[in-house]
Amino acid sequence: MTFKTSSLAARETGARPTARDVAALAGVSVGTVSRVVNGAATVNAQVRDRVTSAIATLGWRPSIVAQNMRGRATRMIGFIFPDLDNPLFSSMIKGAEDVLTRAGYMLIVGSSNGQSEREMALIDLFGQRQADGLIFTIEQESHPAVQKCMAQARFPIVMLERDGTPAATVSAGADHFQGTLQATRHLIELGHRRIALVSGGRDNRVGRARLAGFRQAHEQAGIAVDDTLVQIDSGTAGNDWGLRKTQWLLAQADAPTAVMALGRHLLKGVLVACKRQNIRIPQDLSVVTSNDSDLAELAEPAISVIRYSTYDLGRAAAELLLDQLAAADPASAPSRTEIPTEFVLRASCAAPPVHARAGAPDRLATNTSPR
Amino acid sequence: MTFKTSSLAARETGARPTARDVAALAGVSVGTVSRVVNGAATVNAQVRDRVTSAIATLGWRPSIVAQNMRGRATRMIGFIFPDLDNPLFSSMIKGAEDVLTRAGYMLIVGSSNGQSEREMALIDLFGQRQADGLIFTIEQESHPAVQKCMAQARFPIVMLERDGTPAATVSAGADHFQGTLQATRHLIELGHRRIALVSGGRDNRVGRARLAGFRQAHEQAGIAVDDTLVQIDSGTAGNDWGLRKTQWLLAQADAPTAVMALGRHLLKGVLVACKRQNIRIPQDLSVVTSNDSDLAELAEPAISVIRYSTYDLGRAAAELLLDQLAAADPASAPSRTEIPTEFVLRASCAAPPVHARAGAPDRLATNTSPR
DNA sequence: TTGTAAGCGTTATCAT
DNA sequence: ATGATAACGCTTACAA
């Protein structure tokens, strides 16, 4: 007969108490302790009280790790985002958290930094940790190795702001197509014929949807799209990408009369570029951005935005995940939640300057700024 | 003799393979599998190869849950923040993640929504999940029940942007005292005598440090502080708190000539209030805010800010936690990392209007706005 | 060098 | 109604 750790020992050392300690203190067996905490009907009231007070005395809480060993779900959801240092992430994670907390889940977060290697490492790690599901904003949708990794995952995956793939068919995203379509249409109706589109997302749904909306608006108006005005970047460009792109666009011989800088971090660059070159919004250049912000609202003039709720996006992703978790059938059907977008017209949009419409060579020549 | 799950079964069903499956496939014992994956020196090269390929065939990864059961650290760090839907959270979590990932840890996040009950529930949950540590931005530093809960936690806690408490003596925070001191001094030097301080944090270090810096600057200049100009809020006020407070301050008979709105979310309210009442910055009112942002930088005029890196704050908290985790002595000494602040002077600060200095009753009377 | 078996903290099955 | 015990997947001391 071996000497076992007793509740006495547990109380003396700082060691975490176990059900065995509780059982010893209450003078019952571990099975009974388990029955009490799990609310089994078949427990004598007196025994229940003894156990309950022993639990309180020792401050015992069942080990979730041990419960997981027994096959219980970990109730942990992974969340992989290209860049946690992004205000959009804040509201998305909050939306997801609000939904998942209510259902008893917790979120584990990881930043991929846009690297596929890291995405795969994180998926693998979540697997080892037995996560129950994953909300994933993949960097490159078409990356085969990452897709393979997703396909092998033993948990459901919801794509956030990305398209479903063969490996993960459930997705939540904003309706960038409609938003961009409306905004582009509005600019065209104002008389713009040379509209620039600046956006991230070469290899993901967001960029594709924006481009599609942009093209459709042009097509419906019978206007050809000048591809030099379409600047869709791949990957996480530097912080001053918006600035450099705008400067480049404005330096073209036949510069755009309107720029749609779609992505919250791009607006700053556009405004700085305009300020430096003394370009007036909207007289010289109309501006549209996406993701409403204090800056867009309070800039002088206020900037028109394609607005949508990233909080709702996070909620939607979480809800889709819960649906899949609840579904008895593991191979659930493809599904998608689309969050509506709204074009908010502000003072930054006006008719193009007359000389541009008349085909004047270069507005900047007329309006040289002192650097 | 019972029939055991074999590698065959594991490959046929979708069940996660175990070390036993690997062992069976490789024709070795589970102990050997463990030795191989843990890089034990004493393994025959041929055996190692057989095991390695069996692992690859089955796609086996050791279960972290089972490893935890054996006493291995979970390498999970909790992170409790009052409001995940806050851009500051993004950069803090990113800073922490960068440090912790390198050390093999993952982050579990939870939003307390400013509720002490939820804070305690989360701490408790992290305990049950056997988290190795916690980074915590408590809502009310002095809350006794939460402190007790912290004291009972079996893992080290680092306070983020909060003071150490008896229950958790390690903390990381920005040097709000210096930042506020400098900014206030500058306003005083410009001639301001009635400066308003608007900030959150009635019961935390941030608010206290700001108030202390504010007071010290006044004291050193021999100026009395008018307490009606000091508006330090408790808890997470509504989104329009900055607006309402500014409107209230400007409506006072002896309105301030400068306002320090310390908190990123407050600037918008100040700017809106000024716009609505046709108050010019800085001619009528000087403005200082905290936390640099695109809005502060690009507002017209640009707004002076007390700047500091929330990313560094997250890093610092994580590094302190790693220090504690590495320390053999569990009862480590109190320690604190202070992140420097910097007062960035922009166009929003100027000398107070003449009539205010002459003691004119109400600037608004001279400058009535249409609405 | 490799196999065997105990044990981590639960839960569930089977006796009593 | 309650106790004893096997099992979850892994690591490790000990045996061979």
Helices and strands of chain A, in N-to-C order? HHHHHEHEHEHEEHEHEHEHEHEHEEHH
The quaternary state of the protein chains shown equals homodimer
Main sheet attributes: strand count, strand direction, barrel closure of chain A: 6 strands, parallel
CATH superfamily of the largest domain in chain A: Response regulator
What does this structure look like?
Two copies of one chain form a homodimer. Chain A has 371 residues and is an alpha/beta fold. Chain A contains 16 helices and twelve strands. In chain A, the strands form two sheets. A six-stranded parallel sheet of chain A has the order 2-1-3-4-5-11, with helices on both faces. Strand 2 (106-111) of chain A pairs antiparallel with strand 2 (106-111) of chain B, so a sheet runs across the interface. Chain B binds a DNA duplex (16 and 16 nucleotides) through helix 3 and helix 5.
Name the features:
homodimer, 371 residues, alpha/beta, 434 Repressor (Amino-terminal Domain), Rossmann fold, 3 domains, six-stranded parallel β-sheet, six-stranded mixed β-sheet, 16 helices, disordered C terminus, DNA-binding
SSE layout:
Two copies of one chain form a homodimer.
Chain A: H1 7-12, H2 19-26, H3 30-37, H4 45-58, H5 64-69, E1 76-81, H6 87-102, E2 106-111, H7 116-128, E3 133-136, H8 144-152, E4 157-160, E5 170-174, H9 176-189, E6 195-199, H10 205-220, E7 230-232, H11 241-251, E8 258-262, H12 266-276, E9 286-290, H13 294-298, E10 304-307, H14 310-326, E11 335-339, E12 342-344, H15 354-357, H16 363-366
Parallel strand pairs in A: 1-2, 1-3, 3-4, 4-5, 5-11, 6-7, 6-8, 8-9, 9-10
Antiparallel strand pairs in A: 10-12
Chain B binds a DNA duplex (16 and 16 nucleotides) through helix 3 and helix 5.
